[in-house]
Amino acid sequence: MHSRRQVLRYAGSLAVxxxxxxxxxxxxxxxxxxxxxxxxxxxxxxxxxxxxxxxTSAEYTAARTVINPRIDVKPTYIAYxxxxxxxxxxxxxxxxxxxxxxxxxxxHSYEGASMNNDIxxxxxxxxxxxxxxxxMVIGAGWKQGELARRLFDARPNTGAVMGSCxxxxxSGFSLGGGFGFLSRKHGLGVDNxxxxxxxxxxxxxxxxxxxxxxxxxxxxxxxxxxxxxxxTSMEYRVHAVPPVVTTFYHKFTLDEASRIVPLWFQWIKDMxxxxxxxxxxxxxxxxxxxxxxxxFLGTADALMATxxxxxxxxxxxxxxxxxxxxxxxxxxxxxxxSKESRWRARSDYYLKPLNNEGVDTIAKVLRxxxxxxxxxxLFDSYGPVIRAxxxxxxxxxxxxxxxxxxxxxxxxxxxxxxxxAQDGNSAIRLRAIGDALKASGNVSGRAYPNYxxxxxxDWPSAYYADNLARLSRAKQQFDPTHFFxxxxxxxxx
Length: 493
Ligand SMILES: Cc1cc2nc3c(=O)[nH]c(=O)nc-3n(C[C@H](O)[C@H](O)[C@H](O)COP(=O)(O)OP(=O)(O)OC[C@H]3O[C@@H](n4cnc5c(N)ncnc54)[C@H](O)[C@@H]3O)c2cc1C
Hints:
By secondary structure, this protein is of the alpha+beta class. The protein has three domains: 4-10 and 243-464, Vanillyl-alcohol Oxidase, Chain A, domain 3 (3-Layer(aba) Sandwich); 25-122, Uridine Diphospho-n-acetylenolpyruvylglucosamine Reductase, domain 2; 129-240 and 466-478, Uridine Diphospho-n-acetylenolpyruvylglucosamine Reductase, domain 3. It is built from 17 helices and 18 strands. The chain has helices spanning 4-13, 32-35, 44-48, 60-64, 84-96, 144-154, 170-175, 183-186, 214-223, 257-270, 300-304, 324-332, 356-368, 384-387, 423-439, 459-464, 468-478, and strands at residues 52-53, 77-80, 101-104, 119-122, 129-131, 135-139, 158-159, 193-200, 205-209, 229-237, 239-240, 244-253, 275-284, 287-296, 316-323, 343-350, 374-381, 404-411. Strands 15-12-14-13-17-18-16 form a seven-stranded antiparallel sheet. β8 and β9 form a beta hairpin. The radius of gyration is 22 Å and the shape is globular. Flavin-adenine dinucleotide (FAD) binds next to α1, β3, α7 and β10.
């Protein structure tokens, strides 16, 4: 019970569904016929080839469904573009006609940032692939799991920095930061971007890298999710991976958290860069547990030879060697993927270990709450490779002194799309618990942009920290008419 996906499934099993409150995304229209615009006005090939989905299309419900069922948005058009020229034509048409556009890749934004009531440009068909010596040049529409397999097929024992969920889009993941099981050795996703091609706010195709459009490149790496244009392809680093990796899992009762948590924080300070570990303190319905899981890039014997804490006797515990691709399936919670239950999350960064007061706060929450609420406090181990990049080297700011990224997942419902009686209540609870944890100390007060959180009023400074002012200037420079505007789009200078 420890991958993100598994945590969410567990939460869903505790949930009670209800209906009837306001739609959080502001779409009050329910009559699909009334949403139908004039598709004949839309750029030609999309319609001719059946890739323009409108509310009366048979595929409409599937096409507007994203990972979090809390997100219930009814776009007028969902345009499945097949290449960058079609993206550019759609953008120019949208601009000329005063329409609104968001871009969707994997559709895993926690707050549905890739959706809007008007035009959604879906880039999931953009899946070109060319492998070079140290990098691959790929279409921006790849989902992580299929890309990992494609890369491994093209060159065995080769991987790239990706997260734990196979259906997350590599573009959304890497533009907003991107932490995964290679990150303590090879950095965040954003550190692995070498060059980007995008359709900008004017509908022009431009390249951004450390030679061309440097300031745009700086801004895209950490602030690029939806803010400056539609990224259509990227050059991304690839890395040798061993044929066998070792996954591990140790689970303890919640009562043991005050013993296990300091051990974990001590360990991650100097842990071998081949290890990534996640600590999860989770539960619901009055009970909880603490689990240490992760992956080592090598055999079990080699892992045993590294410095590791003496965890004591866990309730459940094992080490298992797997192939690199099997480990990806394992952390995904299985080879295939399924829909999740509804959730929200709050994140922060720990600069010093979670202290006893923090552990007590978490234990109190887990012991006090009952159905339908379920919680997981997940701690991702950062390391020297991530910290070595200066905080202003690119827009992604969370580097110096950071031990780990924490996210508090809160889940309370099932898989039905649409409003739920607990949605509003969940925001109040998330704020209160997040504030209590912050008050217990040792956190930065910042937030990971990829764990979008609509309950935070201070989101611009929390996501972008000291890089906010420069990013706002970049927004003004590269999107002067604020064409890309959504709930948490960058505030222009
Ligand atoms: C189950 C689950 C597991 C996760 N695991 C991890 C993890 O292990 N590590 C981690 O770091 N994060 C993880 N995340 C967070 C994830 O990285 C973010 O939610 C990410 O934004 C999702 O990207 P997407 O393309 O799938 O989503 P989308 O909703 O399609 O896009 C997210 C944002 O990026 C923008 N965007 C997408 N593609 C482009 C593009 N081509 N050009 C410009 N803007 C674009 C969208 O407009 C939107 O603002 C996880 C999320 C979920 C739901």
